Amino acid sequence: MSNTTNNLQQPPLLYTVPELAERLETSKPAIRALIRAGRLRALKLGSLKVTAKEVDRFLEENVGKDLTDPFNVKDIG
Fold first, then answer.
1. What CA–CA distance (Å, rounded) separates 16 from 51?
2. Beta partners for residue 15, in sequence order
3. 44 pairs with which residues across the strands?
4. pTM score, whole prediction
5. Confidence at residue 2, expressed as pLDDT on a 0 to 100 scale
6. What sign has the CA pseudo-torsion 77, 34, 28, 25?
7. 12-22: per-residue pLDDT in tens?
8. Do residues 67 and 39 make contact, with C-beta atoms less than 8 angstroms apart?
9. Which of 22, 33, 37, 63 has its CB surrounded by the most CB atoms within 10 Å?
């Protein structure tokens, strides 16, 4: 009897800057700016990486925000 949960792909625990940029449909410089501004917390493990939990937190806390300039975040609308 096979365990189908072993066949399911697990979501990543960590995203590199290029992976996260692709996932969030933005640019690598935009992700780096969010990290520099402290809006998105990262760790350096060879290269900068962001945990999946941090991505969830970031998205939840920034709904309704204009993050075009992460050093000067504004409400949308």
1. 9
2. 50
3. 48
4. 0.83
5. 47
6. negative
7. 899 999 999 99
8. yes
9. 33
